[in-house]
Amino acid sequence: MFQKAKNIDTAFKHIRTFTFVALVSSAFFCCFTLFKSLKSVEMAQSRVYILESGKILEAYASPRSENIPVEARDHIANFHRLFFTLDPDDKAIQYSLSKALYLADGSAKKQYDDLRESGYFTGIISGNISQQIQIDSIQVQTSAYPYSFQCSAQQRIIRPTSIVTRKLITEGSLRTVSRSDNNPHGFLIEKWVTVENKDIGVQNR
Length: 205
Known about the structure:
- This protein is α+β, with helices and mostly antiparallel strands.
- It is 47% helix and 34% strand.
- It folds into two domains: 2-48; 63-204, VirB8 protein (Nuclear Transport Factor 2, Chain: A).
- β1 and β2 form a beta hairpin.
């Protein structure tokens, strides 16, 4: 009888141990499954699908810090293209410059006002002059905020009788602002100055 009791006690201990191991294993499995599910949801949310010409393209979201240099350079290039690409059409000039001024602070507005008061835009229209810009390089220092930059470019001023090529160098700084339709990169150019703007060549037409 004592032997049976001992066997029952041993069996009970085995069952208790087995049950404990099973519960711990189940809890661990549940935690692991929950963790993997959360990681899967996080990965799914980081994906963006874009419909382009009937094709679905997959894009990935990433922290803005990874894209600051690229976005900053594109913001600066876009501003300079809008500000310096001009045609002899008053509405086209107003449209480009109004979009450019969303990307910069009062320093750009001051340069615009100075050019307008000097009759620069009127001269472009009356003289049938077109102005184009080619960006050569943009250097952005992201080690300190606000981010300083220097833009080097070439201007082509196309007149009825000649094409003048000018070297243009500007400097300024960038600070972050809210993104919007008018400012998709979320940067604002500040303290924008023209360091150099001189003729480097003239071609007769």
